[in-house]
Amino acid sequence: MSLQQEEKVETAALGKVGANQRNRWWARSRWAPVVLAAAVLVLVVVVWQIAYAARFASRLVLPSPGNTVASLGRGLFGGEWWPHIQVTLIETLAAFAIGLVAALVIGSLFAFLPLVRKTFYPYVIAIQTFPKIAIAPLLVTWLGYGLAPKIAIGALLAFFPIFTNTVAGFTEVDKDELDLMRSLRAGWRKQLRYLLVPNAVTYIFPALNVAAVNALLGVIVGEFVGAQEGLGYIIQQKAFLGDIAGVFAVLIILAAIGLGLFFIVKFVESRFTKFSR
Amino acid sequence: MEKGVYLRGVSKKFVTRQQETVDALSAVDLAVEPGEFISLLGPSGCGKSTLLKIVAGLLPPSGGSAWLDGHEIVEPSDSVSFVFQKPTLLRWRSIQDNVLLPLDVAGSRPKEAVEYAKELLALVKLSDFANAYPSELSGGMQQRAAIARSLVSHPDVLLMDEPFGALDEFTRETLNEEFIELWQREPKTVLFVTHSIAESVFMSDRIAVMGARPGRIIDEITVPFPRPRGAELRKSKEFFDLVARIRETFDLASESSAREVVAP
């Protein structure tokens, strides 16, 4: 956040306080959002514990928070899960990378070659609207039980958001901005460098979050369908054995991985784009 | 050194999707002398923006020719700058980097050019916002930055396409006054498109009044008020009289074109 934005936010907050002449702590404190968010977490855990203690649901399907944390601890510190976390991470990163590169290349071809766009557009729409995870079993049959089918389905899911925004970023360029470049006598390369690529980047970054999460989703589905390793495999094993606390514990790890991916992408984005859209 | 712009029988036809031919401009003759400030004044659809784009070298004329000093205009020129109705600042560049864009596109940022950019930012009162991004600025501030950008390459001719048209009237009047002050420090030949009669009278040396269908110049009016012009001019009787006279011109033009439609 730039200095000016901070000033803007601060004056906005001050304005509100001044308007109703009350020093509401949650309007002033920087920590208020953190405290409030933490309060929600505490509330959820408390309700969960009450539900468990009062047997709102059978203990076979709802573990206690304590058991879940214990299971999480055993899995992590016992070292049993680390290889699986590693496999899922590698698959996800590979899927994301392949989806990203393919989307940038094919998206650029679509944007700059009208013939390619006209020829393949109906098929792209067809694939885009198709529920892609439905082909996971087929991919496992074709590519075997290793990493390949998981990476393939993850890459396919990561591809589309980036692809769509790449095409949009190169084609939805303000007409006046193009005229500006022409009036500055910018040739094709300079238009690309100073207008089209930066414009596309502003479209592509917001898609990367979705793509990263999609990659993880595809990988987990792939692991459900057929795998001997990975977190999706662990979830299925635990559910099959009735270890519901274990399932919950793996879900927490997946949530952490998803959040981690989200924040890494956000961080990279903030390095590249200091302006606000 | 300022340069003159000369139009000889410039016309422009567009073909619509229904394959109809529309005469956007019909045989426009106009001479803009070096250092002169001329407004193209007219209702929307009279082709004034089209005319400006032809002068900018962004659109080829269908007939006639446009000249910049002794050279026929066939492509954008180094010595001409364009100011759009929208600020058209690149949102990923800071204000200072936006002002420096013409230099980046030209290939380098010489030290004195960067100094000049800073000077221009000070002249348009944006020194404190050099490192801000366009989205952090108001519409008037963005348009000031766009004007600074148009001046950074030391153009001889400035083409302005309703640059203050999107602003509220108070901001517009302030920017009018600021721009005239700036123009007197940095003299340029200016071709200024507007649909505001008052704005054209306040700003220009001469007004080319345009009519629509087909777009053409229906009158040329010399504005007699001495410079420097201040805000008081807007309240003077002479100012109102000239505004009224130009309004009359439009009324006559629309009456005569109504008669043309009625006549068999």
From TrEMBL, chain A:
CDD domains: TM_PBP2 (cd06261). GO terms for cellular component: plasma membrane. GO terms for biological process: transmembrane transport. Residues 89-263 form the ABC transmembrane type-1 domain. It holds the Pfam family BPD_transp_1. It comes from the Bacteria. InterPro entries: MetI-like, MetI-like_sf. The chain crosses the membrane at residues 31-54, 93-113, 120-145, 151-173, 194-220, 240-268. PROSITE patterns: ABC_TM1. SUPFAM superfamilies: MetI-like. The keyword Cell membrane applies. Its main location: membrane. It is a multi-pass membrane protein. It is found in: Cell membrane. The keyword Transport applies. Keywords: Cell membrane, Membrane, Transmembrane, Transmembrane helix, Transport. Belongs to the binding-protein-dependent transport system permease family. This is NitT/TauT family transport system permease protein. It comes from Tamaricihabitans halophyticus.
TrEMBL record, chain B:
The keyword Disulfide bond does not apply. One of its GO terms (molecular function) is ATP hydrolysis activity. Transmembrane segments: none annotated. Coiled coil: none annotated. Residues 5-237 form the ABC transporter domain. Pfam families: ABC_tran. Keywords: ATP-binding, Nucleotide-binding, Transport. This is NitT/TauT family transport system ATP-binding protein.
